[in-house]
Amino acid sequence: MGTMSRAKRSDDWGFPRWRPYGSSRETQKVRLCDRHGCSEPGNCPAPKSPNSPERWYFCETHAAEYNRGWDYFAGLSAEDAAARAAEEAQGARSYARAQHYAWGGSGDGSRSADEMRALELLGLDPDADFDATKKAWRAYAKECHPDVRPGDAEAAKRFAAGQAAFEILKQAEERKSWKPA
Known about the structure:
This protein has helices at about 60-70, 80-95, 115-120, 130-145, 155-175; strands at about 45, 55-60. By secondary structure, it is mainly α.
């Protein structure tokens, strides 16, 4: 009679898809921290030198320690270091003006971009209520209405823009106050 290894009981009740992805019963290979004497897993890659594809793999603590002492300008002449710093600063400025930052303006996110532009045109804060909007619109209209300034094409354009802005804010207020039955 041969000895047969007994199957171990699993906790997935025979449904292997219930196991997490990448899970298996084999031992996983863990890379240890590259710092001498550290037995933590090394899951934070760090370059061995600037612009080098070679990496150290440190634990979180040793990666932080390594990054604190990192000299980004190591091995560069003063001119090259200044050029790289200027290039980085230019990159940061262009990133700050990136298009996707436009939504990050003032307001609590409850107003659309059109509503925010309309409020700005009327000189209102993002959290202005509708009464303040009506008051601002009246003052704006008195300033540039075609009857007040006949023959002024620029004032007529401003009035039309203000009228459109007020209409946007009025519709937004109506949507806010309308409740389904």
